[in-house]
TrEMBL record:
Protein name listed in UniProt: Uncharacterized protein
Domain of life, source organism: Bacteria
Amino acid sequence: MSFDAFIQSAWRAHADDTAAVATQLSESLALLQTAEQVPAYVRLVVHVYGEHLGQWAAGSALLAQIEALPLLGHGLAEQALRRGQASLAFCAGNESALQVLNAADRVAALATSATALAGRERLGEGMAALRAACAEAEQVLAAHDDAWRALAVAGNNLALQLEQTAGRTPEQTAAMLAAAETGLACWCRAGTWLEEERAEYRLARSLLQAELPEAASQHAQRCLDICLAHAAPYFEQFFANAVLALAARAAGDAAAFSAHRAQALACHAQLSADDLRWCVAELAELGQA
């Protein structure tokens, strides 16, 4: 199996068979042939051993094995390992692990930690890490520093995780909205129009979960406006129209729901078989399963 095929397969399987993927990661270091491959491997190790398993020490030990491979001397590989090790150590309770990092590495490690801690049902610590990362980023990061992307990913991932949490508490709902807003703000700094419109979609979804349909409609409309301004593919327009329809229905606007539902279904009809598999949940919500 090629390196890329292994990484793709592991991401697909990790949520349903986490322990098996962790074992595969520990036994597949021979697939690492270039320094450029290291960041993708490190991200997966930190995610699986950290957020999913809470096995901080085991994840750190696996990263140490990667550090021992004759692949380094490449800035991005070394950066990924520094950030990954610091995040795992921080989540394990070693706050001093962040102090030896430069500002950009510290922000990125905190952002990764925020998602991992929330995934281990340590939401308060996770949100504190996200706030600390945001505060430091505002003070020290350059406009195009890649750590903004780490913050954006953390915000979006935290928001999605909390949207899917059954029986959310008021504290969790507030955290969900704060995370989605962070994701949007950071993608506006660090991303393309595509990432910005997807962050608008995420915030609209979070607002719907918070039972704030009017605010959800505003962000859903922004999502669609960005799509139309950039002639986005039908795949993106489907989701934009779908969330706008759902927000309209939640707000009691039957005419707007019907109009945007029709637009969403028209976009859906243009999608490839590969794209269709991502649309099942939205289609069911629109009453078209």
